[in-house]
Amino acid sequence: MRQLNLLSYNVQAGIYSRQYSDYLTNSWKHVLPHPERLVNLTRIAQLLSRFDLVGLQEVDAGSMRSSYIDQIQYLARHGAFPHWYCQVNRNLGPFAQHSNGLLCRLRPRQITEHKLPGLPGRGAVLAELALSNDEVLAVAIVHLALGWRARRRQLDYLMRLAKSYPYCVLMGDFNCGCDSKGLRSMVRKAEMRGLDCELKTFPSWRPRHNLDHILVSGPLKTIAARVIDYALSDHLPISMTIELPEGLSFVEPEPPRIASMLP
């Protein structure tokens, strides 16, 4: 196996947004449970089931607003993913568990949590997938800050992270698009590809901004990339199929080790 089907999706904790006014009228759903949330997650899982590796942002790891359901585990079960991981970035106890999530059909060799620079609450979870010839493919799922100063520091951090792996994927909600000098600089310095201004993901009901990206290191081949019209959040999901270089393939590793990294 040399190809991998990737998907990145900011699911807004299962809240269905149809227009800007929903940010006000649905604000209570960010605190309290609602039966529509589970219906939305089930529909999202149907989409996720088509992919090999999924990166999730704005998922809840089990709090009052999610009816104490770990949404990552729920999506993994209903999408038939044998391997999943939750990175809680903002722990508000019983009220909210803001998280990044990883769903994968291949067993990661190692999973590492990175706390990104800036105020607490932003992180990246990095999975190393074992390849032949003792190589690895590093896949980092990220959710960056809204403020440009903190985001610039986070992009610098991701640039150094990407440069430490010959084969790397950065995917997630970067909260910035092609007009971001910091993002373009990171892509250039890390020698990555995949920054496509036409892949607009936000807002889902009338996409005008490309805030979500899947970026790959130079040796990886992009077979296809697209935004999927699946408006169950305020973001649309973005997908990419990548291919390893000739002579490399995915292999089954030993059970993963869990580590933590601080900036």
Report on this model:
This protein is α+β, with helices and mostly antiparallel strands. The chain has a single domain, classed as Endonuclease/exonuclease/phosphatase (Deoxyribonuclease I, Chain A, 4-Layer Sandwich). It has helices at 22-25, 35-48, 71-78, 148-163, 181-189, and strands spanning 3-10, 53-60, 83-91, 97-104, 110-115, 123-130, 136-143, 168-173, 192-193, 212-217, 221-227, 238-243, 257-261. The longest helix is centred in the middle third of the chain and has 16 residues, at 148-163. The radius of gyration is 17 Å and the shape is globular. 49% of the residues are buried.
CATH class: Alpha Beta
Alpha carbon gap, first and last residue: 34 Å
Number of helices: 5
- CATH superfamily descriptor: Endonuclease/exonuclease/phosphatase
Widest β-sheet, arrangement of strands: 9-10-8-7-6-5-13
In the CATH hierarchy, the architecture is 4-Layer Sandwich
How many domains is the backbone divided into? 1
What share of the residues lie within helices? 10-25%
How many strands, what sense, and barrel or not for the largest sheet? 7 strands, mixed
- Global Rg: 17 Å
Query: Helix and strand succession?
Result: EHHEHEEEEEHEHEEEEE
User: Mean pLDDT, nearest integer?
Assistant: 91
Structural class: alpha+beta
Shape: globular
How many E strands?
13
